[in-house]
Write a structure and sequence with these properties.
This protein has 143 residues and is mainly α. 57% of the residues lie in helices and 7% in strands.
C-alpha cells in the first residue's frame, strides 16, 4: 500500500471506517488496546501517534511500533493462555475472558478488516495481496 497516493489513501469509499487510512488506524488502535488489556490496563487511550497519523508512512510507523510491543508482550505470556483478562470495552461494558480468547479476537478482527482493505484496494483499481493463511504459510515456508 505504500505506493498509494495520499488522495487514494484518504479517499472515503463507504463503510464504518470509510478510507484505507481510517480502517488501518482502527486496526492499530484495537491491537494496542488488546495488548494493554494483556498488561492489565482495562481501557487504554489510543496513542496520539496512532490517532493523528495521516500519511501511509506515519500509519506504518505507528503500526510497526505497536506490533513489536505486542509480540514482546504476547511472547512473555504465551504460557499463560488460560489466565483471565479483565477489561472494559470502549462502550463501557466490563468483561473477563481467558487470554486465548482475546488472542482469537485480535486475529478474527484483523481478518475482517483486511478483507475490507482488500475490497477498498480493488475499488481503487489496485491489485491487493492474497489474504489466505495457507498461501502465507507456503510463501514463507512455514510447516
Amino acid at each position: 500500500m505504500k505506493d498509494i497516493p495520499d488522495e487514494e489513501w484518504t479517499k472515503e469509499m463507504g463503510g464504518s471506517f470509510p478510507s484505507l487510512n481510517l480502517v488501518c488506524k482502527h486496526l492499530i488502535g484495537a491491537d494496542y488496546r488488546w495488548m494493554q488489556r494483556w498488561k492489565g490496563v482495562s481501557l487504554a487511550a489510543i496513542p496520539e501517534a496512532v490517532s493523528s497519523a495521516g500519511s501511509y508512512t506515519q500509519v506504518a510507523a505507528a503500526w510497526q511500533s505497536v506490533l513489536e510491543e505486542m509480540r514482546t508482550e504476547f511472547d512473555s505470556r504465551k504460557n499463560e493462555l488460560d489466565r483471565l483478562v479483565s477489561f472494559t470495552t470502549a462502550k463501557g461494558a466490563p468483561h473477563t475472558l481467558p487470554l486465548w480468547q482475546t488472542v482469537y479476537q485480535v486475529v478474527n478482527h484483523g481478518t475482517y478488516h483486511r478483507g475490507q482493505i482488500t475490497n477498498m484496494l480493488r475499488m481503487l483499481g489496485r491489485q491487493p495481496v492474497g489474504t489466505d493463511m495457507f498461501t502465507f504459510f507456503v510463501e514463507k515456508g512455514i510447516r
